[in-house]
Backbone:
């Protein structure tokens, strides 16, 4: 931590995966380095917006819960994303809101009530040394995080923040995190979709899918109709965020932030970044549908989200 850093949070009990995340690493995939960053970047952005931080400011991604933090400095923090039963000194905290804390208090996260990942924002962002331009934690590659080596938080760690004062905002009424509506994930068709059987393409966009329990920061397997592709082999190629690969068993795998940089399975296309954020909050067994969109529509929706965060600048 730098000399100007406020030592604000001490980890008393570490959950299964509490990770420092920002927007991720870009311009490094030619080195074999993946993107990383917040899976639900929308919730991280709103948590930061509540405090007046830029949306990509480093915060804490809390998956599943079972985390306890001791407050070591008075401040205003913010939570957005999943409801993990957060409490402050045993009293329930409102989700998707900012709140004041005092030194000596305990902030705890129990278990998922709705959604899977909550995002904690602090004044000015969590202070950690960037690696390849980002503090995003990628445990598989040993990059980023508190010590730069990609490890999840552990008991005894101390988190500092870079800022002092901050805004005290309230989420717009139309922002619900995670969204309550049925998950309709926008997918930009492309890659090898022309090589899939016609009935498989129809099924992909007209049948229901369920999230498998084989899901992590690398990717999420979907269970549903068996998709058939006529390609017998492929040369490995670059894999973007949200790529929907279909291996031999016909069950799609959506590749997320910690994905490998190349792959050789045929792809239906890719989920939009907004759809990836929505998928990150779906628990195993939850249902979803895929809906086709165009690159132009996906771009407009993406830019509209960023414009909301910067409307008051």
Residues:
């Amino acid at each position: 931590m730098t000399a100007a850093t406020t030592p604000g949070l001490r980890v008393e009990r570490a959950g299964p995966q509490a990770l420092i995340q920002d927007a991720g690493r870009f311009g490094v995939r030619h080195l074999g380095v993946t993107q990383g960053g917040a899976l639900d970047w929308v919730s991280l952005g709103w948590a930061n917006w509540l405090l007046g931080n830029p949306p990509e400011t480093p915060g804490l991604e809390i998956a599943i819960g079972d985390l306890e933090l001791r407050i070591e400095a008075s401040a205003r923090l913010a939570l957005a994303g999943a409801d993990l039963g957060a409490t402050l000194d045993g009293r329930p905290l409102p989700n998707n809101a900012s709140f004041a804390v005092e030194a000596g208090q305990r902030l705890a996260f129990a278990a998922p009530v709705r959604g899977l990942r909550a995002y904690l924002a602090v004044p000015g962002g969590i202070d950690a040394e960037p690696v390849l331009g980002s503090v995003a934690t990628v445990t598989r590659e040993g990059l980023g995080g508190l010590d730069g080596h990609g490890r999840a938080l552990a008991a005894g760690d101390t988190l500092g923040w870079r800022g002092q004062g901050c805004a005290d905002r309230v989420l717009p009424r139309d922002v619900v995190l995670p969204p309550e509506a049925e998950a309709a994930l926008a997918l930009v068709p492309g890659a090898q979709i022309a090589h899939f059987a016609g009935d498989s393409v129809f099924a992909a966009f007209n049948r229901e899918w369920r999230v498998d329990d084989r899901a992590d920061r690398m990717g999420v397997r979907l269970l549903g109709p068996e998709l058939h592709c006529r390609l017998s082999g492929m040369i490995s190629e670059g894999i973007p965020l949200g790529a929907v690969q279909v291996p031999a068993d016909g069950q799609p795998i959506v590749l997320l932030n910690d994905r490998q940089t190349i792959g050789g399975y045929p792809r239906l296309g890719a989920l939009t970044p907004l759809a990836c954020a929505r998928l990150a909050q779906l628990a195993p067994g939850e249902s979803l549908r895929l809906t086709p969109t165009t690159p132009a529509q996906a771009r407009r929706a993406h830019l509209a989200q960023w414009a909301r965060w910067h409307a008051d600048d």
Q: What stands out?
A: The chain has a mean pLDDT of 95.
